[in-house]
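Subject: Conserved protein of uncharacterized function, (CpsA-related protein)

B.,
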Amino acid sequence: MQRSVVLSSGWDIMDFVRQLQKLAGGNVAFATIPVLDGAGWSDDGMQSVVRVDPRQVQDWVVGLLHEQDQGKTDELAYTPAKTTANVVNDTDINGLAAAVSKVLSSKGFTTGSVGNNDGDHVPGSQVRAAKADDLGAQQVAKELGGLPVVADASIAPGSVRVVLANDYSGPGSGLGGSDPNGVVSPARAFNLGSADDTTPPPSPILTAGSDAPECIN
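Prediction pasted inline below.
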């Protein structure tokens, strides 16, 4: 900056400087916008480009800024890989726990143990975690169709235990057009081709306070 600095109209530079004074490594986060194709080409076929859905990017940015304004720094930095999902089957349906575990793995959660429930029978499907407000448990519950989260002090932090009962009808259950392995039936394949669920999820948000080196694109 040897000649001039151009500022956006209405930008309060002094307020920006005051914000900078509060910055620390763990308070700086890097987020990558959601993309449709990270290895696309321009219409003339001459340039390598990243293809995006402008409306999707706009909605994503609005949500990101809202969470920032709400002080939800933990939510911003959370990624599914930080949660180990253990899944147990409390039904007579063979392979249910394995199918649901596969669904969670495809969503980015770390795969934990899979098997039958050797504890007390549960009245309904649930996600158990050390705390009911555990971010990982809340996210797992959401991915499985909105299961209730139950606090269980015996669950280690960073892990959840998904208990599948006879009422489970979420992803991997074989109901609603998918088989127990989470494979979509041919009848629904065409409609899903244009659904938002087929869009790759945005890259995880990284914080500058991480001990591990990260590549920021």
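Residues 176-199 have pLDDT under 50 and may be disordered.

T.
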